[in-house]
Design a protein that fits this description.
The chain has about 725 residues and is α+β, with helices and mostly antiparallel strands. It has 5 domains: about 200 residues, Hypothetical protein af1432; about 150 residues, 2-Layer Sandwich (Beta Polymerase, domain 2); about 70 residues, no CATH class; about 60 residues, no CATH class; about 80 residues, ACT domain (Alpha-Beta Plaits), CATH 3.30.70.260. Helices cover about 50% and strands about 15% of the residues.
């Protein structure tokens, strides 16, 4: 399609202009086709504001081109990022139209759209998907950041409840996540916009106060800078100095943390000196010049140039006493360092394009997340994983050293145990003590930047469950929990082995339901708890099983034996009639076919045993009649009241709650069939039972059998007929 609307033409021209200003190269055809496709795909959709939906992907693309400038592929992906999720077009079509790279980025953004759920994330497995999508292509998460940023900028148009939910989610997950990617500017905007919707009164009050202080701030910064700018000029340093107004949420958080009013917090001024140089030594020269003029504040100096943060942030931080005795925070950095501080991974991507950075640099951006997943077991509780995720996002860092002088980064409040697991899981598992700066310290000692650690190990030492209470890193927490669980699993297995030997000795059987009931009756949380206690020798298993044996004897309902059933059925019918008459002629029932009331029968005259009653279909009877058919004599069952006779069925299947009720209903609901008796026994998740019922004839019985076979879980229904084969 071709864009004909003048408004859209102007928007496309503006986007291409921004791309050309910020991207290393621009494929105008790709951008144009993506723009047109997105307009067409979303043509029938509106945003909450009432604007055409396309306005959203367009602004996301502008953010990517201007604030997170990567490449034209990312801009095209931003234009199309909602197509697969919200329209009839799928990823395969995008792949054909715009290539695999664009399709994969859109697919990645679509997959992670549902991952963040504020307080809790739906599945730990989704974290792994998020990790994989980022490692495969870091552009996926950057498009997602741009998407969330535009949604936050236009949050006024949704209802207050949704505003708070999205703002909370952004503050807890997206803002610290952006920080870890080095996206300082994006992080600040996430925090300030979230603050606006979570505490609007405090936000608006701060906006007014900061605006009122603006002129004063600018005047003071000019006064502060004059003495040392002359010196910087003498050294021929190219620089720019600007006042770094703290963003609103940072001020608010400091007010709350220190319990001080705005005036006291905001009295601390901040400036940033950005040097146009490739030589990092110029940063230290600048620091020296400032320290000659203003008194530095002890313990307020940090050198992130020599030791960069995990997200590759580099800068010198210092605080000095400025004119009028006011404290001034100063950051000194090069232009390159500033771009990394503001644009983080986006800046690295650009260096990668210019071949001045390697793929390894980009991998480092996600190492901190990878640590979470490599050490997280699949069955780890969602809550634990969520806590670790947030913890890893927010934590500041300390820098400690091995005995050989190797540097290790750890979160603030880390302990020697955290350090031990950071070195290697085996070192952590066998950690028995630690030396910090040459002195032996307790394992829960809090470490500080600059500490040198030596871990003392012992092959006989294993993790202590109390370690979980004081360790900080996810790696250490997970490893300790994993060890404790394995140790407990071994104890439970030993207890289960003892249990199985004992129940074999007592000739008892327990299915899962029986185990659950027994555990509850003995005041255990579950069978696992019971097995653990058995292994520890804290229960008298012989006494428990003896009681269970007696109970089983009392409670077990015997399955109806055929001979008992046949005798009941025949006596209920009143015997048989020989030649239609009630007779005192001696007769008995043939064992070969076990006839019961309802079966078509015939008599066979024997010598010494009177008349043998057979089924008419009996194979033995057929053979006998071939020899001498004159011995056959007509017999029949007498007509019972209402033409009913007793029939029996054997039913087997999978045990489940309510199975007895379902079997009864299947019988009774057919012609109001009356049940005489029903006996069910369960074992190992299966059941076997016998049912006796009153039926009119064989056809009636056959219908009942068919209905029972349709009951969920029933896999066998047979006529109760002793050793004979099934008759339907």
């Amino acid at each position: 399609m071709t864009i004909s609307d003048p408004k859209y033409k102007k928007m496309l021209e503006e986007l291409i202009k921004v791309c050309k200003q910020n991207l290393p190269s621009v494929n105008e055809d790709l951008i144009t086709r993506s723009f047109e496709f997105s307009v067409e795909a979303h043509k029938n959709d509106l945003r909450s504001s009432g604007d055409p939906y396309f306005i959203h992907p367009y602004h996301v693309a502008l953010i990517v081109a201007e604030e997170l400038p990567l490449d034209d592929i990312t801009v095209a992906s931003a234009l199309l990022h909602d197509v697969a999720e919200d329209t009839e077009f799928n990823i395969n079509l995008l792949s054909k139209e715009f290539g695999n790279e664009v399709a994969e980025i859109v697919d990645g953004v679509t997959k992670i759209s549902g991952i963040f759920r504020g307080q809790e994330i739906t599945k730990a497995e989704n974290y792994r998907k998020l990790l994989l999508s980022m490692v495969k292509d870091v552009r996926v998460i950057l498009v997602k950041f741009a998407d969330r940023l535009h949604n936050m900028r236009t949050l006024d148009f949704v209802n207050p409840e949704k505003q708070r939910r999205i703002a909370q989610e952004t503050l807890e997950i997206y803002a610290p996540f952006a920080h870890r990617f080095g996206l300082g500017r994006i992080k600040w905007e996430f925090e300030d916009l979230s603050f606006k919707y979570l505490n609007r009164d405090a936000y608006e009050e701060l906006v007014k106060k900061v605006a009122a202080k603006r002129k004063e701030r600018e005047s003071y910064i000019k006064k502060f800078g004059e003495p040392f700018t002359e010196k910087l000029n003498e050294y021929n340093l190219k620089y720019e100095i600007n006042g770094r107004a703290k963003h609103l949420y940072s001020i608010y958080r400091k007010m709350v943390r220190r319990n001080k009013p705005f005036e006291e917090i905001y009295d601390l001024f901040a400036i940033r000196i950005i040097l146009d140089t490739k030589n990092t030594y110029d940063c230290y020269t600048t620091l020296g010049i400032i320290n000659q003029i203003y008194l530095p504040v002890p313990d307020r100096f940090k050198d992130y140039i020599s030791i960069p943060k995990t997200n590759n942030y580099q800068s010198i931080h210092t605080t000095v006493v400025g004119p009028d005795g006011r404290l001034v925070e100063i950051q000194i950095r090069t232009k390159t360092m500033h771009e990394v501080a503001e644009r983080g991974v986006a800046a690295h991507w650009r260096y990668k394009e210019s071949k001045s950075a390697s793929d390894k640099d980009l991998e480092n951006w996600v190492n901190w997340i990878r640590d979470i997943f490599e050490n997280a077991s699949r069955d780890e509780a969602r809550k634990d994983l969520m806590e670790s995720f947030k913890l890893n996002l927010y934590q500041d860092e300390i820098y400690v050293f091995t005995p050989k002088g190797d540097l290790r980064r750890l979160p603030v409040n880390s302990t020697p145990v955290d350090f031990a697991f950071e070195i290697h899981s085996k070192v952590g598992y066998h950690c028995i003590g630690a030396k910090v700066n040459g002195k032996i310290v307790p394992l829960d000692t809090m470490l500080h930047s600059g500490d040198q650690l030596e871990i003392i190990t012992s092959k006989t030492q294993h993790p202590n469950k109390n370690w979980v209470k004081f360790v900080t890193t996810h790696k250490a927490k997970t490893a300790i929990r994993k060890w404790i669980k394995k140790e407990e699993d071994d104890i439970v297995k030993a207890g289960k082995d003892i249990w199985e030997k004992k129940i074999k000795k007592f000739k008892l059987s327990f299915d899962q339901s029986d185990l659950d009931k027994l555990a509850v009756s003995l005041k255990f949380d579950n069978p696992r708890h019971m097995f653990k206690t058995i292994a520890q020798g804290k229960v008298n298993l012989d006494e428990i099983l003896s009681t269970s044996k007696e109970k089983e004897k009392k409670e077990k309902v015997p399955v109806l034996e055929f001979n008992t059933f046949a005798e009941t059925a025949r006596s209920s019918a009143g015997g048989v009639l020989v030649e239609g008459l009630d007779s005192s002629v001696m007769y008995s029932y043939a064992k070969c076919c076990n006839p019961i009331p309802g079966d078509p029968v015939i008599g066979y005259i024997t010598i010494g045993e009177g008349i043998k009653i057979h089924r008419k279909t009996c194979n033995n009877l057929l053979k006998l009649s071939e020899i001498d058919s004159s011995k056959l004599i007509p017999v029949q069952w007498p007509e019972a009241e209402a033409n009913l006779f007793v029939a029996g069925l054997t039913v087997m299947g999978e045990d489940s709650p309510g199975i007895l009720n379902e079997i009864s209903h299947a019988i009774v609901s057919y012609q109001n069939t009356n049940i005489k008796s029903i006996n069910i026994n369960t074992s190992d998740s299966t059941f076997e039972g016998s049912v006796t019922l009153y039926v009119h004839n064989i056809e009636h019985l056959t219908k009942i059998i068919d209905r029972l076979k349709k009951v969920r879980g029933v896999y066998s229904v047979e006529r109760f007929e002793g050793s004979t084969s099934q008759v339907n």
